[in-house]
# Entry
Amino acid sequence: MEAAAARAPATPADTDVAHSEDEGERRTSYLELFFDLVFVFAITQVTALMIDDPTAAGFAKAALVLALVYWAWSGFAWATNAIDLSAPALRVGYVVAAGAALGMAIAVPDAYAERAGWFVVCLFVVRMLQLVLYVGGLRNQPEHRAAILGLAPWFSVAPTLMLIGGFVDERPRVVLWLAAVAIDVAGTLRQGPDSGFRISPGHFAERYALFIIIALGESIVAVGTGLAGHTKDAAFAGALAVAFVGVAAIWWAYFDFTAAVLARVLASRPPEQRGPLARDVFTLCHYPIVLGIILFAVAAKKTVANPTEPLSGAGRFALAGGIAMFLIGFALGRYRIVRHVAYERVGAAVAGIVAVLVFPDVDALALMAIVVGILVAGLASEAVHLRTFRAEVRAGPTQN
# Structure
C-alpha cells in the first residue's frame, strides 16, 4: 500500500483542496473509544473460541464468528464517520448499542452451542441500532441518507439470517451465517462512485487503525494470560521474546508508514470516490489483516506455553496462516489502489507457509523464530525498496 500515494497528491491545487477539506477533519471521540472497549472483549472471546477448538473446522467457525463481529463494528465505524454524536438521542442510542455489543461478546463462546440465541439476539440488536442511528443521524444530509437507505434492505436481511441461524442446528447455522456475510458484502459492492456516501478521511482511517490496535492488544493478552504456572526458564524467555518481536513487526508493518499512507490516499481522492475506496481497502481488506493477527496470537500462545515441543498441526496452521493472511490483506489493499503487487509481502507470506511445511517437527520456538524472521526480512526489504518514496511522503508535498 505504501506505493499507493505516489499517484495521489498530483498537483498543488489538489493539495490545497485536500488541506481545505481536512481543516474540519475530526478525531475519534471518547464515546467511540468507549464503544471499542466492548470489541476488545469480543476479539478476546474469538481467540478463546479458536483455542478451545484447535482444528481446521474450529478455526473456520471462529473466523466466521469474527466476520459477524467485525462487520457489526465496521458498520458503526461508517455511521460515526458521517453523523454528529453531539445529539443526546444519538449518544444514548450509541451507549445502548455498546450494551448490546457487550452481551454479544459475552456469548461468543456459545456461538455454536445450544445457547447461541443469546449471541444472535444481541448481534441483531446491534445491527439494527446501527442502521437506525445511521439513518437518523443523516437528517441534514439527504444524499448520504438516500445512499444508506438504498442498502437498508441488504443490511436488514443479513442480520435476520444471523438471528435465524442461532436457533437451528450447527450445519444450517453455518450456512445461514455464511449467507448473511455474503449478503452484507454483496450489498456493499453495489456502492458505486456516485452512490452518495461521503467519507471524512482522517477519522475513517483512524477508526480502523484503532481496531488494529485492539487486535494487537489481544495478541499480547493471549500470550501473557494463562502462563503463571509455566517454568520461567531460558526457553520460555526466548519464546516470549520471539512472540513479542512478531507482534512488534506486525505493528511496524501497519503503523510505521502504512496507516499514514492510507489516510493520505483517501484524503487525496475526490469526495465521490472515497466511499468505494474506503469500502475495499478498509472494510473488506482489513478483515484478513485482523484475522491474521488473531491467528498469530493463537500460535504465539501455544509457542510460549510449550517452546521446546513441536507445534501441533493447528498451531502450525495458525502461525503460517496468521502471518500469510495479515500480509495478503495488505497486498490486496495495495493492488486495489495502484494495481501493483506487493512482492515483498506476498513473498514473505509464501516463504512463511513453506517454512512451516518443510519443518513440521522443529521445536515451536525455533519454528516461530524462522517465520518471524521471514516477516522481518520481508518488511526490511520493502523498506529499502521504498526508502525514497517513504522519505518523500513523510516530508509532505512541496509547494511550487
In short: Confidence is low (pLDDT under 50) at residues 2-23. The CA atoms of residues 52 and 58 lie 8 Å apart.
